[in-house]
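User: Predict the complex with calcium ion.
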Amino acid sequence: MRILIAEDDEVLSDGLCRSMRQSGYAVDCVKDGQAANTILSGEQPFDLVILDLGLPKVEGFSVLKSLREKNRQVPVIILTARDAEEDRVKGLDLGADDYMIKPFSLPELEARVRALIRRGQCGVNPTYVCGTLTFDSVGRRATINGETLELTTRELSVLEALMSRIGWVISKEQLLERLYSYSEEASSNAIEVYIHRLRKKIEPAGVTIRTIRGLGYIIDKVSETNG
Ligand code: CA
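Assistant: Here is the predicted structure with calcium ion placed in the model:
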């Protein structure tokens, strides 16, 4: 899950960024509206945007407007000190999915982020199952026979990527994209380490992550008969 935070208040932006990363999201931060427009026009899709309205260069409303004009359906939460009714109405009319007023409660913001991500996956069952191994993408936990596995946030993200596409090969590049934001150094060696650790941890479920040379990794479908 990738989140973009567009916020020019350094302290707030750093705090948000840190707590979202701790929750296991890959987070990018931009400090003005122009940078937000650029990154949102890029190739890499985001799963959610947290958008301040009072941004330097290009203000938040116009970032939102151009995003929707490009027909990008990414969920957007406006986070602003502007509490006037007309601003709230304008934000929602321009296509924001939620509107929070500063000062705000971090647990509440995080809950709204989860709710929107859940809605974004609508129609898709957010719990993936492979034999006795299950992955709950909203609660962000994996279990074997109902028992929670001890996984780091990065391991969770790798497992989520593989379990959301059981039977399909996921390339190292796709895993790197999921795990790291633009500002973070990523290496494909790190992916190998996470895969290695995950293999051991999910072994009790009889689920294996196969390496497909030159292509990536796959979790095979478990058939009813061979369990
Ligand atoms: Ca601002």
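The chain has two domains: 2-120, 127-225.
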